Amino acid sequence: MNDDLLILLNRLKSVDTLDDLDDVKELGDSILRKEKRRALHIARHRGGNR
Q1: In a designed cystine with 20, which of 7, 15, 36, 42 is the match (CB 3.0 to 4.6 A)?
Q2: For the purposes of burial, counting CB atoms within 10 Å of the CB of 11, is it exposed (0-12), middle (13-18) or buried (19 or more)?
Q3: What is the largest CA-CA distance in the chain?
Q4: Is 24 in contact with 15 (CB distance < 8 Å)?
Q5: Nearest CA to 23 among 36, 38, 34, 7?
């Protein structure tokens, strides 16, 4: 996830317009969805091992 956050931070630093900000928001939302899926996957596997 660290690479994703660095990309997001760099994109945020280069925001010049509202459209740019919208793109950064979409990227952040995408990263969040990906991390939620990853966390759910990990939780399911840990729950199955008990």
Answers
A1: 15
A2: middle
A3: 50
A4: yes
A5: 7
Rounded (10°) angle between helices 18-48 and 2-13: 170
Give dist(CA 45, CA 21) in Å, integer: 36
The DSSP letter of residue 38 is H
DSSP designation for 19: H
Going by C-alpha positions, the residue among 44, 18, 23, 19 that lies closest to residue 8 is: 23
- 37, 7 contact by CB (below 8 A): no
8 A C-beta contact, residue 11 and residue 24? yes
pTM of the model: 0.78
Structural domain spans, the chain: 2-48
